[in-house]
């Protein structure tokens, strides 16, 4: 039953991402050229909803679906970490025209060419796992 819940939430999220044009290359291109507020509004509202959600989880002491306590610890702040990671992420996003979440939305919508980007992202993730101990964190 739990997997049906996860699948249903994922499908709903994918539909919302596609219908809101968050997976649209044109909208992302438009955002990088400061041509429209659309994507900034989407991301800003996602951040606000995320902040509210985390605060509710902390205040109500909400547990996971397995009944375990959630550990929401703040990450270590590091300029180098966010500078390098953000640059790599941003370059990938600009080159592919899509960030990780919408990649799967586009695959589900039938855009087969996005599979090249997904394979590249998986290879990059694998390489990060191999090099993790040697990278500045």
Give the topology, please:
Blueprint: H1 2-19, H2 25-32, H3 38-60, H4 79-96, H5 100-108, H6 114-131
Helix pairs in contact: 1-5, 5-6
Protein name: YeeE/YedE family protein
Organism: Arenibacter arenosicollis
Pfam family, one: DUF6691
User: Mind telling me the C-alpha Rg?
Assistant: 17 Å
Output mean pLDDT: 88
Q: Count of DSSP helices?
A: 6
Helix content: 55-70%
Helix-and-strand structural type: mainly alpha
SS elements, strand count: 0
Range of strand content? under 5%
Low-confidence stretches: none
Count of separate structural domains = 2
Span of the ends, CA to CA: 38 Å
Report the order of strands and helices. Answer: HHHHHH
Main sheet, how many strands, which sense, barrel?
Answer: none
**General shape:** globular
Organism: Arenibacter arenosicollis
Transmembrane segments: 38-58, 79-98, 104-131
Protein name: YeeE/YedE family protein
Pfam family, one: DUF6691
How is this structure best described in words?
Keywords: Membrane, Transmembrane, Transmembrane helix. Pfam families: DUF6691. InterPro entries: DUF6691. The protein is mainly alpha-helical. It has 2 domains: about 1-75; about 75-135, no CATH class. It is about 70% helix and about 0% strand. It contains 6 helices and no strands. The protein has helices at about 1-20, 25-30, 40-60, 80-95, 100-110, 115-130. α1 (about 1-20) crosses α5 and α5 packs antiparallel against α6 (about 115-130). The longest helix is centred in the middle third of the chain and has 23 residues, at about 40-60. The termini are far apart. The model has no long low-confidence stretch (mean pLDDT about 90).
């Amino acid at each position: 039953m739990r997997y049906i819940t996860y699948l249903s939430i994922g499908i709903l999220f994918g539909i919302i991402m596609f219908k809101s044009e968050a997976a649209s290359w044109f909208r992302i291109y438009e955002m990088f050229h400061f041509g429209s507020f659309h994507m900034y509004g989407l991301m800003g509202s996602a951040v606000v909803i995320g902040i509210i959600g985390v605060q509710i989880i902390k205040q109500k002491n909400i547990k996971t679906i397995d009944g375990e306590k959630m550990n929401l610890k703040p990450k270590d702040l590091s300029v180098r970490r966010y500078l390098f990671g953000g640059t790599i992420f941003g370059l990938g996003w600009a080159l592919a025209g899509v960030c990780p979440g919408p990649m799967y939305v586009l695959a589900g919508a039938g855009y087969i060419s996005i599979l090249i980007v997904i394979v590249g992202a998986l290879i990059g993730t694998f390489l990060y796992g191999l090099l993790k101990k040697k990278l500045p964190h």
